[in-house]
Amino acid sequence: MSELKGIYALWYRETKVFLRERSRVISSIINPLLWLLIIGGGLGAAVSFGGVNYQTFIYPGVLIQTALFSSVFFGVYIVWDKKVDFMKEVLVAPMRRTSLFVGKIIGGSTDTLLQILILFAIGIVFTVAGIMPGLHLTVFSIAVSLAFLLVTTVGLVSVGLIIGSQMESPEGFQLIISFLIFPLFFLSGSLFPITNLPTWLAPFIFVNPVTYAVDGIRGVLLDISQFSLLFDFAVVSLFAVVMILIGTYAFKKMKL
Amino acid sequence: MIVKNMPIIETKNLTKRFEKMTAVDNLNLQINEGEIFGLLGPNGAGKTTTLLMLVTLKPPTSGTATINGFDIIKQADRVRKSIGIVFQDPSSDEILTGYENLKLHGWLYDMPSELREERIKEVLELVELSDRKNDRVKKYSGGMRRRLELARGLMHHPKILFLDEPTLGLDPQSREHIWKYIENLAKEKNMTIVLTTHYMDEADKLCDRLAIIDKGKIAVLGSPGQLKKDLGGDIIRLKAKTLDVEVLKNLPYVKDIKPCDGEVCLTLEDANMHLQEILNLVGKIDSVEIRSPTLDDVFLHYTGRAMREGSPEGSWAEKMMNASEKT
Lengths: 256, 327
Prior knowledge:
The complex is a heterodimer of chains A (256) and B (327).
Chain A lengths: L1 H19 L1 H23 L3 E2 L2 E2 H21 L1 H8 L2 H6 L5 H32 L10 H28 L3 H17 L15 H6 L1 H14 L6 H25 L3
Antiparallel strand pairs in A: 1-2
Helix pairs in contact in A: 1-6, 2-3, 3-6, 3-7, 3-8, 3-10, 4-7, 6-7, 6-11, 7-10, 7-11, 10-11
Chain B lengths: L6 E11 L4 E11 L3 E5 L6 H8 L7 E6 L2 E2 L4 H7 E4 L11 H11 L4 H14 L15 H14 L4 E5 L7 H18 L2 E6 L2 H7 L2 E6 L2 E6 L1 H8 L2 E6 L5 H5 L4 E7 L2 E6 L2 H12 L4 E5 L3 H9 L12 H11 L1
Parallel strand pairs in B: 3-8, 3-9, 6-7, 7-8
Antiparallel strand pairs in B: 1-2, 1-4, 4-5, 9-10, 11-13, 11-14, 12-13
Helix pairs in contact in B: 3-4, 3-5, 4-5, 8-11
């Protein structure tokens, strides 16, 4: 009971803070729009894959990109918590470290999923407006995509928290995650099909768990996929479970 | 009368070493249930480090401690269930309001909702923040943040409450209020309170017993009254260009002579009666002061230094003298 209350307290705080920091909310909408309109529109004038226009092709990638950036970046708040000493208040409370980790995951995932929901709304508007033809936005396809995004987000928030729990300065955290986020994004097939890859590039793409999230979502939304839906989901789930386990351990070992 | 003789906190050779220095050096302390215990010392003496180890936030390098019967290393979870702490640095969330920070605390400590709301109201009144409770902490002044911090720590009435410099930077009136509340908590709830401070008046007024900590070690331990009494008699402080200390040493009623801040401090019984004789012996002096011993004198006596925020360059008196020499 007390653990649940503690988890709720942490979730409440993360969500309140997220909604109050308008710049975070706004940038979380602007950034994917830029990708869809500028990269999608600009490159889309010259290229198209799988029988759909480029904007439509990268839409699943932009969903994942939002999840990736916002989730991993969420870890920086734990570094800030340490800096402003809010962490002490939580660490000294009669609450297990595991619960602290769970509360943070739920908080971070909520932030990310709120942004994802806005992106789905944009997706629907664009589809209706005819900008992204070929996108199957049905209740079923959105539900399956959300399941993929939720599991991926949990894994990625864990990655951010693991790094954040070991770092002391926000600058250091930012440096490390930019070395992490960009390869994960560019090597995920978000921006290009993963068929006929150069042989030196293929292994990097296939060891990246984010690839399978993109493939699964693109499969269900665009009917373009390389692997089966179940296989994609299994890989993404495995990734999330492993990250949760590492994260639980990292939080137990976390020092101030 | 409550029996106050069961140690609720016991440290056993508690030690914390950092790369270059030993912050806490084989500390052995026993604190009894229901007492207000003070750790008094200059900044950097190891008070806060001791506290952070006791509340399980920093692991000791060696040694350990038990709190409410639980080991701070092996049973950290259970220790945390028995304690509360007010940190020296603000640890509230700035984007939340004062009220929300308190509510969060209530949840983290699993307080029933009715009790939580009742206590929030009570502590907000105590620290005079009731009318600002719905403002974001970002808009609070430094003093208000400090008071919110204190309100939060006092809210869940733990068995043992740790206060790290509770009234640092507060105005005298707020300090009085907070002292009274702390005293009541100890008396009415039989709460054990451990506080660190470098304010002598705070330690004197509030603590049942205190330990003077210097360089990570206990210099002396006792009740404020006893510590002052142990020094014996009155203190005369003399300032002179040249002073013949040898003559004074031979006087039968002078108990102790030591230099303090470039002056000379004599401890003796019944200073009023012997003052004339002393003045005759030492010759020309610049100034003289007679008073009863304070905790400052106790500190000086046991550490050989004055207690002034532990500034490494020396006391203000020395600085003043150096400055006047230069000009």
